[in-house]
Amino acid sequence: MVDFSTPAPTPEEMERDREIGRVLFAGEFNFVFGAQKLGQLPDPILPEIAFAGRSNVGKSSLINALTGRRALARASSEPGRTKQLNFFELADRLTLVDMPGYGFAKAAKAVKEDWQGMMFSYLRGRPTLRRVVLLLDSRVELKASDEEIMKMLDRAAVTFQVVLTKCDVPKPPALAAKLREVGEIVRAHAAAFPDVLATSSTTGTGIEELRAELARLANPV
């Protein structure tokens, strides 16, 4: 099990980290490569943060909100359309990886299994991968595919952090209940980071906090 027993940051440290995150994510951000096969992966140089989530969870919208770009990561109206690992380089200090969505209903079983196999091979073998940001839709119940991905991350021994998306939609009591529910679930997974973040790409809720969290994993200036 990964040891996450670190002291909680003070308000001053949190404000400092938010500013560090703001500066980092305001830096130059470029698409590097889209890999459809493991043999096409770019060389592992910078620390990597991979974003995973069920199709239509709002992954592209969240990446765009983090970077302040409108269409850097393209959202698709067709669930499961993204079929590759997309690599984006941030200020020569961090790489964000947009992973294919999972759990899309229309895909053939063989395609789902092939994509999951590629994801697991990438997660298990990538030396520069620092964390997976696992996105869950705050409006809906957890699906079997979400639990499968958490178990896969446990097996790959890759630290992952759950981030709830679209948190502007549920009423505050419903959102608080969802945070408690997901918090209990992640505590049962050996590789899970204990803090669950609530975000909204529409209102900006939680975006500063997530930037600060990811900035701690970037190469120093």
Automatic annotation (TrEMBL):
The keyword Transport does not apply. InterPro entries: G_ENGB_dom, GTP-bd, GTP-bd_ribosome_bio_YsxC, P-loop_NTPase. PROSITE patterns: G_ENGB. The keyword NAD does not apply. Keywords: Cell cycle, Cell division, GTP-binding, Magnesium, Metal-binding, Nucleotide-binding, Septation. Residues 45-220 form the EngB-type G domain. Its cofactor is Mg(2+). SUPFAM superfamilies: P-loop containing nucleoside triphosphate hydrolases. It comes from the Bacteria. Belongs to the TRAFAC class TrmE-Era-EngA-EngB-Septin-like GTPase superfamily. EngB GTPase family. NCBIfam families: GTPase_YsxC. Necessary for normal cell division and for the maintenance of normal septation. This is Probable GTP-binding protein EngB. It comes from Komagataeibacter melomenusus. The lineage of its organism: Bacteria, Pseudomonadati, Pseudomonadota, Alphaproteobacteria, Acetobacterales.
